Amino acid sequence: MAAGKGLAFAQEAEGTAPDLAQFPRSETVIVHNPEGIIRNPAWFNLWAVGAGNGTSNGLHQLTTDTLWFIDPDAGVEGASENAVYNSLADDLWQYNEDFSEMTVKLKQGIFWSDGVEFTADDVVFTVQKQAATPGTPYNGAFSNQVAEVTAPDKYTVHFKLNKPNSRFHALFSVRWTAAWIMPKHVYEGVEDILSYDANPPVSIGPYTLHSFDPNGTWYIWQKREDWQRTAMGMIAEPKPKYVIYRNNISTDNRLIEIRNGNLDMVHDLTPEGTFSVVQQDPQIQGWFPGFPYAHPDPTLVMAIFNHQNPKFQDKRVRWALALMLDARAMSMASYRGAATLSAISVPPTGTHPRDYHAPLQEFLANYEIDTGTSKVKPYDPQIGVQIADMVRGQFGDAVPTDETAIRNAFGYGWWKQNIPAAEELLTAAGFTKNGNQWMQPDGTPFTFSVMVPQEGVVNRLGVIIAQTWAQNGIGAQAEVDADTWGRQRVGNYECNIAWAVETWGGHPDLSFFMDSYHSAYVAEPGASQPDRNWMRWKDPRLDEIIEKIRGIDFNDPKGVEYGHDFVKLHLEEMPNIPIMAYNVFSIQSNKFWTGWPNAENNYANPVTNWSNGRYIFTQISPVAGA
């Protein structure tokens, strides 16, 4: 089954499975990789952008490492603190007083799979090589931010920065991916690292490449005999001897394969498919023990308005559009009720309900809007309970009844649909109504497109949003586009339904997305916009909050305080409309392995393509006699 080096174009057909008879199920975990066709299956060099290779095929989950990990959920108890793991680093980052220098102490006793010891020289080489090599993932970040990187001794790295940055360590902190450390002894001998396939890869993780499909539909990794000499192995032993990643599997076949025992972990299904399989097979679990089953991703789906479009520059208009929406209808249309709502601009996932949603409930309940005609309190803390009651008739006891469980599954609350208040806000903004059509202050019809992806829950959500606005006199039409992300990045849209906020999830710091909200990053119309401020919102009060966060330590409790200030400013301005977490219907089978993370034991994000998922393999166990 071993494939040779070189380019091999993947097949277009449905992904196949290797000969599973060779791999005892008590020693083997089989994982669904959501990547589709992998065009360059024999490429394992992660430091060349755009090579057409797979990355979530086990490569970045099992063979790479960097200084720290931040899990979107709570993290393994005893191995992480506030969801932060010291991985290759032996302790947290150490900055000087003004955050212009950072020192890192490294763990000792870590070895690459070819027997060479990992040292500070590897980290220094990684930074210097990428800073000097356009086309590598962190070329821009390192060349712009690092003035000097040195190794004072074998296990210490020292950075001098071009300007103070209290979040520089985030470049080496895995949330989805991060700056993976390169094996210096391998890459220093490669003349052109952008054309080097690294087949087979030298691993700093506890697994090495066993074999792979030349057509790129499966990859098999085998546990190193010296797994203890890796950062992950120092936490606990990875239990599977083999981990198989399979990709390019249709939704229907994922269901069939997990039922047949040929998959243990599935990245995502449709809501309907999940509801069906967990009811039919008691060995299959979702994140929640019952409805809604799905895991709330640390991303927040929103109605994103383009603030460079005059139609959306008055906050009264944006609030009016929010108050026209019906949270129950949006939840049912998109996720069939399995949505986790958020009225504030923080995803309702990981530890965020503890740090943001719960503490702000009283503030939200008392929040008042002056429509120009009346004052209204728009927040409804019982929306989640109402949705739970709506789906209980179909799903019965699978729907939680405990108030805390309902909040965790369905969210803490959302805005009441209040058409009269919305109309008062539009009137105060100078709009008039001609029959059932709202007219802008200049007398032209208030019309705009609502951009949605081609399929999936976000497509469904966008369609119901556009329909709801249209029913209430707004000329909104859903526009399906295959390149919503590309258009959003350059501001070629009016309103887009997508996630606009991504957070660490397991850590309360909001800098992951907030730093890109600074007005200094807002591009001219038509120019590419830095990720996560796609609405192109400028506000000096927002800049002030961001600059305060930049000036404090990552773990400073004031970070949560400033995060609350951001939530309240966002609430006042409603630059975009927060709606719900991007829930992922990840499922696992307990037929051969057990101990998977779930809402009651939330030690790891269960989606299969994130690097944080590596810690799952230290916590699961084979089922006796299976």
UniProtKB/TrEMBL annotation:
GO terms for biological process: peptide transport. GO terms for cellular component: ATP-binding cassette (ABC) transporter complex; outer membrane-bounded periplasmic space. Residues 84-517 form the Solute-binding protein family domain. The keyword Signal applies. GO terms for molecular function: peptide transmembrane transporter activity. Keywords: Signal, Transport. InterPro entries: Peptide/Ni-bd, SBP_5, SBP_5_dom. It is found in: Periplasm. Its main location: periplasm. It comes from the Bacteria. Pfam families: SBP_bac_5 (PF00496). The keyword Signal applies. Belongs to the bacterial solute-binding protein 5 family. This is Peptide ABC transporter. The lineage of its organism: Bacteria, Pseudomonadati, Pseudomonadota, Alphaproteobacteria, Hyphomicrobiales.
